[in-house]
Structures are given as structure tokens and as C-alpha cells.
From TrEMBL:
The active site is at C117 (proton donor). NCBIfam families: murA, PRK09369.1. One of its GO terms (molecular function) is UDP-N-acetylglucosamine 1-carboxyvinyltransferase activity. This is UDP-N-acetylglucosamine 1-carboxyvinyltransferase. Pfam families: EPSP_synthase. Phosphoenolpyruvate binds at K22, N23. The gene is murA. Gene3D superfamilies: Enolpyruvate transferase domain. It catalyses: phosphoenolpyruvate + UDP-N-acetyl-alpha-D-glucosamine = UDP-N-acetyl-3-O-(1-carboxyvinyl)-alpha-D-glucosamine + phosphate. Its EC number is 2.5.1.7. CDD domains: UdpNAET (cd01555).
Length: 438
């Protein structure tokens, strides 16, 4: 088992570069399956475990996939299989995003039911509602969802989402690109990753309009082609480094950060006393000597992102006064609260809200990551806690962050990633040194 070990107290400074967005690259790779002709070349792809997983899913489906130098190449021109098994979907829920592409391309798709995860039950009823409206017959049984289009092709439809689900918007958008006729999708998600996917689909020959607004219109075409695309920078990774700078009272240039993708986050952090300077290469973040408490409510974009909720909790624990965070997107995204308590955080859960009295007298402890953003948040807390923090369950971190500890170390954090054997060895060495000095 690996651990990240952080010794708190260092102020961060310097420059850190943001990777391509995990939540943009996964749907884009799923969309490459729509091309029955030509190769897709996707650039600025982060080396995350989720990317390796989606690549494996595509290979299983009979696409030819390469991944080198932050570039994924996909040739999906061969006949594709229709089934994505549970071993992949269990590893990563976003595997369900191949369903729209497969259904559009093959007229049939069979994908293992994702089930719940640490942040909530996460049903996919809105995805299925969209496929059904486009004429598909959807059956759920034996742990699989099976969808079949009449005579092998979906038709356009008018679809209203009950909630602006990111995954449902993406899956239905992909399915509609090859449907007969026009699809009008209403109350859709407006996240920057939706716009990135629409841009890629249009490069493939699709006709998608309105991405980034509440209504998306997709005129179906007969065939799509491989295309080249650069993935947008990861606004959540960028936000995580903004918090790292702020929590340590540091001065960090977050290179590649797009301020328009982080409006709600920057506004809240400014309210807390953090200074932001837009520079040519990115955003400079300067932390104050004392952070002010604020209230936050997570919402679909352009509201405050749920994927920054736990990192902001880390920041608010360090702020002076009473703060309240209300989580409205996922019903169970507070698993990290207990771990923060192990670090002496003054925090309590009341329904869908968390109340913090700050600043907490944060102390280093051994804590376990409960999901990928919680992993980052616990490490951020370790940067200002008294003593040593050890964070375990790093498989979560590796889903969403490339070289997180190395990037923080390059900014001046006292942080390392070790295996249990290495930690035991260094403890033994410490004991010998202490004994020799005695
Ligand atoms: C790979 C990826 O891009 N993941 C992001 C995506 O997840 P994901 O696409 O799964 O998130 P959704 O926007 O679909 O889910 C938001 C809420 O809607 C509910 N829901 C969703 C679909 C559905 O058919 N029925 C339903 O009830 C979910 O349970 C959840 O409570 O958006 C989330 C919300 O910004 C982010 O936290 C995730 O990081
Ligand atoms: C919840 C997240 O991702 P996923 O939807 O892939 O679990 C996330 O990126 O914070």
C-alpha cells in the first residue's frame, strides 16, 4: 500500500502546470467510437488511471488505441463489439459513456449497470430516457442495460432532462449525432467539458449547436470521421492548486488555468480574501495571511462545482469564522468529513450541509481518501496541519491527478509518496539515527 506523507507548514510559491481535463477527455475518447472512417488523434491527454481504463474499454470493443506522449490515437473503423463488461464499469463509472456511441454506431449496446459509488447512488435514468425517446428499446436485467435501435438506427427527438446531468447530456448528444433527423435536448448541462465534446463531435462531421447553453440541437448525419483535438485544461486540477496556494498563504502561478471556467470558484475565494491576477500564461493566486469564512452551495455549472467541494472544505477549515457548505448535486458527498475530524477539524454535518467553526487547530493524522477529490483535500489539509499527515487509498487520487505530490513538492511542499516498506525502512533508519545520537 502506498501513502502520501506531508509535513505541514511550508508556504507554496512558483509555477505549476495544469493537465488536460479528465472529465473532458473521457467523453471525447468515448466519442471516437462514432468514426467508422479515419483515425482520431487526441492531444493533451493526462496520464490518469481513468484514461488507461477508457482506453482498455475501447480496445475490448475492438478499436485500435495508442497512448504515448500525452496523445491518444483511436482507429475505430473495424466492426465494433457491443458490450462493455462490469470489470471496466466497476473501475470507472464513466465507462457508461460508450453506450451512446455504440448505440449510434451499431444500433445496439450492452453495458454493465454502474451501481452506486462513494459519493451517491448515481442512477442513469436520464441517459436511458433520452435513448428511449430516440426510439431505442431499453431493457435492464442480469446486471446489464441493453439498448437496441429500431432497424439499427435511432431517430431524432425532443428530450427534456429532469436535471442537467453531465453524463446524460454527453451520452444523448453522442447518440444523436448519427440519428435520423434532429434532436433537441433541453435543460442540459452547460459545463466547459460539454462544449469541448461538442467541438470534437463537430470536427468529426457532426452538426451540434448550442453546447454551453441550456438547449442543444443535434442534426443527425450519416457518417462521422476520425478527427484531431486538443483537450481543454482541467479546471478542477487548476482549482485544487488555487486552493493549495491560498491555504498556505502562498504565491503560485497556475499555468493553463482558464479563469472563465472557474468564475464561481474565483468569486468565492476572492470573498475569502484570496487575490487573483490574470497573466498571459494562466492565473496567479496569492493567499492572504488570514482567510475569511464564506458559505457555499454546489450547483450545476456555472454554479459552484461539486468536484471542488472537499478542497474548499479544507480551505474553509483554515478560515476565521463560521462557514456552511451545502451539497445539492450528490446526496452523499461528505464521506471525507470523518477523515477531517481525525485531523481535529471542527466540523459537523446537518442534512445536506456541513458547518465549520474556523480556524480549526488542524493536526496531522493517518487518514484515508474516500474519493478522488477527498484525496486531494486531505493532502491540502496536511499542508497546514501541525505535524505529519499520512494519506492512504491513493488509487482514488490517481484517477484524477497526475504527479500530485511531485507538483506540490516543486512548489515547496514537504511531501513524499512512499510504499509501506519504504516507510518502515525510513522509520527504522530514524530510530537508528536517534539511538546513535543518544
Ligand atoms: C466523468 C465526469 O465527467 N464526471 C463528472 C460528471 O459526473 P456525472 O456525469 O455522473 O454527473 P451527473 O451530472 O450526471 O450527476 C449529477 C446528479 O444527477 C443525478 N443523476 C444523473 C444522471 C441520471 O440519469 N439520473 C440522475 O439522477 C446523479 O445521481 C447526481 O446526483 O458530472 C458531475 C457533476 O458535475 C461531476 O461531479 C463528475 O466529476
Ligand atoms: C466525481 C468525479 O468523477 P467521476 O464522475 O469520474 O467519479 C470527479 O471528477 O470528482
Amino acid at each position: 500500500m502506498e501513502k502520501i506523507i506531508v509535513r505541514g507548514g511550508n508556504r507554496l510559491s512558483g509555477t505549476v502546470k495544469v493537465e488536460g481535463a479528465k472529465n473532458a477527455v473521457l467523453p471525447v475518447i468515448a466519442a471516437t467510437l462514432l468514426a467508422s472512417d479515419g483515425k482520431s488523434v487526441i492531444r493533451d491527454v493526462p496520464t490518469l488511471s481513468d484514461v488507461y481504463t477508457i482506453n482498455e474499454v475501447l480496445r475490448f470493443l475492438n478499436a485500435e488505441v495508442g497512448f504515448d506522449n500525452n496523445t491518444v490515437t483511436v482507429d475505430a473503423s473495424r466492426e465494433l463489439k457491443v458490450e462493455a463488461p462490469f470489470e471496466y464499469v466497476r473501475k470507472m463509472r464513466a465507462s457508461v459513456l460508450v453506450m451512446g456511441s455504440l448505440l449510434a454506431r451499431n444500433g445496439r449496446a450492452r453495458v454493465a449497470l454502474p451501481g452506486g459509488c462513494a459519493i451517491g447512488s448515481r442512477p442513469i435514468d436520464q441517459h436511458l430516457k433520452g435513448f428511449e425517446a430516440m426510439g431505442a428499446t431499453v431493457k435492464v436485467g442480469n446486471g446489464f442495460i441493453e439498448a437496441e435501435a429500431p432497424e439499427g438506427r435511432l431517430h431524432g427527438a425532443k428530450i427534456y432532462l429532469d436535471f442537467p446531468s453531465v453524463g446524460a447530456t454527453e451520452n444523448i448528444m453522442m447518440a444523436a449525432t448519427l440519428a435520423k433527423g434532429t434532436t433537441i435536448l433541453e435543460n442540459v448541462a452547460k459545463e466547459p467539458e460539454i462544449v469541448d465534446l461538442a467541438n470534437f463531435l463537430n470536427k468529426m462531421g457532426a452538426k451540434v449547436r448550442g453546447a454551453g447553453t441550456g438547449t442543444i440541437r443535434i442534426e443527425g448525419v450519416d457518417v462521422l470521421f476520425g478527427a484531431e483535438h486538443h483537450i481543454i485544461p482541467d479546471r478542477i486540477e487548476a482549482g485544487t492548486f488555487m486552493v493549495a496556494a491560498a491555504i498556505t498563504g502562498g504565491d503560485v502561478l497556475v499555468k493553463g488555468a482558464v479563469p472563465e471556467h472557474a468564475t464561481s470558484l474565483i468569486a468565492k475565494m476572492e470573498e475569502m480574501g484570496v487575490q487573483f491576477i490574470e497573466e498571459e500564461e494562466g492565473v496567479r493566486v496569492i493567499g492572504p495571511s488570514e482567510l475569511k469564512a464564506v458559505d457555499i452551495k454546489t450547483m450545476p455549472h456555472p454554479g459552484f462545482p461539486t468536484d471542488m467541494q472537499s478542497q474548499m472544505m479544507a480551505l474553509l477549515l483554515h478560515a476565521k469564522g463560521t462557514s456552511v457548505i451545502t451539497e445539492t448535486v450528490f446526496e452523499n458527498r461528505f464521506m471525507h468529513v470523518e477523515e477531517f475530524r481525525r485531523m481535529n477539524a471542527d466540523v459537523k454535518i446537518e442534512g445536506r450541509s456541513v458547518i465549520m467553526e474556523g480556524p480549526s487547530n488542524l493536526q496531522g493524522a493517518e487518514v484515508a481518501a474516500t474519493d478522488l477529490r477527498a484525496a486531494a483535500a486531505l493532502i491540502l489539509t496536511g499542508l497546514v496541519a501541525d505535524g505529519i499527515t499520512r494519506v492512504t487509498e491513493l488509487k482514488h487520487l490517481d484517477r484524477g491527478y497526475v504527479d500530485f505530490h511531485k507538483k506540490l513538492a516543486s512548489l515547496g511542499a514537504d511531501i513524499e509518496r512512499v510504499t509501506e516498506a519504504e516507510e518502515d525502512m525510513s522509520t527504522t533508519e530514524q530510530t537508528i539515527i536517534t539511538d546513535l545520537n543518544a
